[in-house]
Amino acid sequence: MSISDPSAAQTPLLDDTIDGCLDYKGRPVRRSSSGCWISASFIIVVEIAERFAYYGISSNLITYLTGPLGESTATAAAQVNAWNGAASLLPLLGAFIADSFLGRYRTIILASLVYILGLGLLALSATLSSISSSGGQNADDIALSSSLQFQVILFFSSLYLVAFAQGGHKPCVQAFGADQFDTQDPEECKAKSSFFNWWYFGMCAGTLTTLSILNYIQDNLSWVLGFAIPGIVMAVGLVVFLLGTMTYRYSVKGDEESPIVTVGRVFILAVRNQKTSYSAIAAEEEARGILATESSKQFKFLNKALLAPDGSKEQGEVCSIREVEEAKAVIRLAPIWATSLIYAIAFAQSSTFFTKQGATMDRSTAMGFEIPAASLQSFISLSVVLFIPIYDRIFVPLARALTGKQAGITLLQRIGSGMVISTISLVIAAVVEMRRLKIAEEYGLLDKPNVMVPMSVWWLVPQYTLYGLADVFTMVGLQEFFYDQMPNELRSVGLALYLSIFGVGSFLSSFLISAIENLTSGDGRDSWFANNLNRAHLDYFFLLLAVLSAVGLTLYVCCTKYYIYARWGRTF
């Protein structure tokens, strides 16, 4: 008994530990006292703070650029898209640094500090704007011009410092949050699927707060205060994140080489072995006991990395089966990534032309309060906040009962459903804009851009609401898809790839706007994006995007037919 009792006592402890994870002191972590929703709650709070800060800048950025900085509508829209693009592409760098060197926890802390610095400098640049605008008539024009130039340099430097910080923060926080759930445990695996829904719920709650409060402060009180508050909120979020340090599960990072280098080596060896016959590869697969599967048959040229060019099999000169499968998982994501770009181009319009569209309309309420144009974006967040609980608690269980799938529908089906809704939203946006232009013509306002068009801004609510509904399906689906289908060591990179869709989409939107501006202007004509929106044709632009979205959706459906889910992901 004296021997058997200690063994029995140790069994629960052994079962309670989680493979591949440590606590904050580097000890084996216990399931019962770490991770799951307790840890995820701290991480969701810091994400709410970060989204509050980010959208506190991006949602009303076009108003600041066309107002205090005096840029044209087309130029400002291109600037906003370029910045959003940079902010969405920089996570690739942040994810590489996190997965290869610092780890997610340290990268989050460092990125948060840089974030706070950037927001502080942004508030300082707005302070200079206030000082310049308060100068009297006798103020030295040269001094004011120099001050304005310094303000613009400081503003854009601070703006891109925020984008750089977001690049380290965004992919790591979400991946670190998902890491708190053990996919080997059935209950935690199911909870992880809900985590992505509630993660986006938290994001949109932060965004909704920003659009409801911060945009009003920026438009009616002070840009300085409007830029300073996000910095304060971000600092509070960092403190909350640090409070959860003792509860987090930290993935074990060994001394092995960077996973990005490993995947890269598969492609290099496959190219160097291009002359190797497929019969030799088949013999090697048989020798290793590899069973023929759909995955092994797809992208067979990568299987050449299993052999060295000289036929040797020394350590380091050939790749393992898992390494080849990881490389295949990465390349399989490329068609999904590419066909999602049109959705990202459409997504970029909500913070630019939708906002300018609303600024020309009747924004007064029964209480005499005028709604800030940028605050209309709150309907996107509001529809997300309202629909995600319905999706998670009602739609998923019903769909699960019908399909037998853990998430109700597959991730690719979820993403495609949102693309359909987004296309419908763009058609509605075009119809509403046609109506706005007709009313402007009827009231003789075509050449009076500063006069309000007597059409209620509530006409824009349907397009904003459908955008939010599309996000519930496509945005959340893309997040989970790019996390789930990447190897564990590359999941920060996976989320960075998801974000890069919207980065490249913003750049493509900027390019499309510039191209259309050049094609439709000149010879005394008003372009589709004329500063006088009553002479512009945003309706044509929205219809063009709807057609492109339909084409993109068709290509996406074709690509999904050939997609093979990674074996370490969920079973569908």
In DSSP terms, counting alpha (H) and pi (I) runs of 4 or more, how many helices?
A: 20
Using the coordinates above, name the CATH class of the largest domain.
Mainly Alpha
Structural class designation = mainly alpha
The main sheet orders its strands as 2-1-3
Q: What percent of residues are in strands?
A: under 5%
Report the span from N to C terminus: 47 Å
Assign a percent range to the helix content: 55-70%
Query: Strand tally, please?
Result: 5
Main location: membrane
Subcellular location: Membrane
GO cellular component, one term: plant-type vacuole membrane
Protein name: Major facilitator superfamily (MFS) profile domain-containing protein
What does this structure look like?
It is a single chain. By secondary structure, this protein is mainly α. It folds into 3 domains: 17-131 and 144-255, MFS general substrate transporter like domains (Growth Hormone, Chain: A, Up-down Bundle); 259-319, no CATH class; 331-564, MFS general substrate transporter like domains (Growth Hormone, Chain: A), CATH 1.20.1250. Helix content is 68%, strand content 3%. The chain is built from 20 helices and 5 strands. It has helices at 4-16, 36-58, 61-66, 73-89, 91-102, 104-133, 141-178, 186-220, 223-243, 259-272, 278-287, 294-297, 321-339, 341-347, 353-359, 378-403, 411-442, 461-484, 491-520, 538-560, and strands spanning 17-22, 28-30, 250-251, 361-362, 453-456. A 3-stranded antiparallel beta sheet has the order 2-1-3. A two-stranded parallel sheet has the order 4-5. The longest helix has 38 residues, at 141-178. Mean pLDDT is 80; it is low at 1-14 and 134-144. The chain crosses the membrane at residues 35-57, 77-96, 108-128, 148-165, 198-217, 223-243, 330-351, 371-391, 411-432, 495-516, 540-564. GO terms for molecular function: dipeptide transmembrane transporter activity; low-affinity nitrate transmembrane transporter activity; tripeptide transmembrane transporter activity. It is found in: Membrane. Belongs to the major facilitator superfamily. Proton-dependent oligopeptide transporter (POT/PTR) (TC 2.A.17) family. Keywords: Membrane, Phosphoprotein, Transmembrane, Transmembrane helix, Transport.
